[in-house]
Amino acid sequence: MKTVLFDYSNEGVIYVGENIPAANHLKFGMIDADLRILGTASPGYHKISKDQLKDQTKHFQITKSNDIKEMSPDSITNLYLERRRLARLRAPLIERACYSAWATSGRGRISPWDGFENNLENMLKECDVEKQIWSDSLTEYAFINNLKPEHAYREVKLQFDNIHSLKIRIYATLVYLVGKINAITSEDQVAPVNEEITNRFWKDVWI
Q1: How far apart (Å, rounded) are the C-alpha atoms in residues 150 and 79?
Q2: With left for phi above 0 and alpha for psi between -120 and 50, is residue 143 left, alpha or beta?
Q3: Whole-model pTM?
């Protein structure tokens, strides 16, 4: 799978990647840009890559059938070139921020399964603490861990709340950083934001 971000005015390709959230975050910072997802069966899948876009003399267009072709010189506009320049500045930072968000979320992973907090939430929803009604799953959890149901409830709720709070903090941090990245217009702005990604995701104990 490849994500292709292109200039809506001339279908000129300005970014190619594999991370859908990163591509969408990059798109939100562009005016008149759109996104296509190419599977291996798409006609243009093998005709475009991130490495090809490193050559600033090469220009590509994506067609409505998701094929890729070289752009004709008369289709190359200043607006397209500016959007491609901005994408080249911002994309590595957005990709790093998205990876950092994913990696940091591993701190809250308490089971072998992704999204296990949904199971915890369902376990809690079926309980009524005031009436001392406990779900079958909570009762089983309590039995296995040699706990009273009310103590098991508090333990599971704490686990759920911690995971939920962590994910909200990570998401909020990602949104904040993406906003700063999408405001970048020059090379000298890259290093400070890159440092802030490191500080926010890897050095800030708050997350």
Answers
A1: 62
A2: alpha
A3: 0.87
Distance of alpha carbon 18 from the chain centroid: 11
Residue 138: both structure tokens together: 């909570």
pLDDT tens-digit readout, 84-99: 999 999 999 999 999 9
Q: Is the dihedral of CA 34, 40, 43, 49 positive or negative?
A: positive
Query: Strand 60-62 and strand 68-70: pairing?
Result: antiparallel
CB atoms under 10 Å from CB of 34, counted, come to 13
Q: What is the pLDDT of residues 152-204, one digit of tens each?
A: 999 999 999 998 999 999 999 999 999 999 999 999 999 999 999 999 998 87
Cβ–Cβ under 8 Å, residues 3 and 35: yes
Contacts of 85 (CB under 8 A, 6+ apart): none
Which two structure tokens, joined as six digits, stand for 45?
Answer: 């899948």
